[in-house]
# Entry
Amino acid sequence: MDGLNRPPADPPPAAPGRKTGRPARAAGPQARSRLAGEGTRAAGGLPGASGRAGGREGGPGPGAAWVRLGTDPRQDEAAVRRAGAILRQGGLVAFPTETVYGLGADALNPRAVARIFAAKGRPADNPLIVHVTGPEQAGPELVASWPEAGRRLAERFWPGPLTLVLPAGPAVPAVVRAGLPTVAVRCPAHPVAQALIAAAGTPVAAPSANRSGRPSPTRAEDVWADLGPHLDMLLDAGPVPVGVESTVVDVTVWPPRLLRPGGVPAEDLEAVLGVALAAPPVVAAGEAAPAPGMKYRHYAPEAPLALAPDAGAGAVLVRRWLAEGQRVALVGCREDVEALLGQLGAGGRWVPLDEGEGDPRRAGGDPTGEAAGFAAGRAGGEPAAGAGSAPGGGTGPGGATEPGGPEGPGRERAGDFARGPVVLDLGSRHRPDQQARRLFRALRAADALGATRVLALAVPEHGLGRAVMNRLRKAAAGGEVPGDDHPQGAGRL
# Structure
């Protein structure tokens, strides 16, 4: 399995080709053969799958199959082969990457890709990321040409949480690239993602597997809660190791542009390039964004979220909310939340967040994914369970009650707020990796607990903290609370 996670030995192909802004046809058999990456990494060494698929074998079924991986390698490989067949037949498969869970479809099949947009409620001018097993699968039919900056970054950071925006080849459907002449391409480090793409024999288009605008899913349970009825298969490999989406860099310009901070810190990219990354362009109304996560409100819980720069600014807002009878959830680093509670002179209920650090099935833990690996079993000794189908809530794997069911965590739990705010701890200010892993779990937990207001405290904006702050600003979407010296004064919340 280590072979699934090493950077490629050969540089990405400097494939001749032309840029194209016109809609491309779906690739024919010869193009598909080239794009399938014949001779790519083997899919062996996967964690084992337990249970059975709930839909029709070999293709999309009327009900999703939730398959938990981690106990029997032979069953795992069979499950991934079934998932690959579903993708080839135009189905939707949710699967883990090292960043978040993705909702995958055959990137060369426009009808299959259209199902992604329908399932998520995703705007058509928001392009998708195409996932490949390695640079050998990103030949001239997919990527028209490789700028030198893209070559250098792929050599260093692939496989891993880095997406490169490149000139699109003729096989990329317009729906994937939102009509733009570029395509966003990533080589994931997670062994299940690698094996799935190889089994499908085609590049896989995959945004995060959640309803558009919601917090991204870091566990299979999150995927099921948002998209269960729309799935043909869900591959569950436990919590993901990074917790925020990939970094997106446009390498068609010089200096390259940082379009979205993510799992690879910008400082690491700049060290390889020897130049500072440029700021992203301003996307006007009516224009397609060059990368996901740039144009719309994203990552947001159901409750309104305000982002405060420090404990003092946050305490003012929380006092007002508590006086109004709001159920308040605090999201922030431990030190900052303690300071805020001290200013309030009130206690709070600290809710532990299991971001998967104890789950032996979680691949890796470093941003590049080079150390990714699995061991059998589940966190806390929970027995692995078979697949279940629970559209709209009800019973999932192992008979557990899922979100949306009669006893699911989506019910309001006012008693949790009896002692004041509920605290969702992102960890230490000195651990941006922990903050990233816990962020989306915290935002989803706020909804599950029934919070009516969420106050997020800013984290140190360096390394992965830059990605965390990007997600919080997008989730706030106008609810950022300026400091006392800010000319705009207080925020809207």
Remarks:
- The two ends are 49 Å apart (CA to CA).
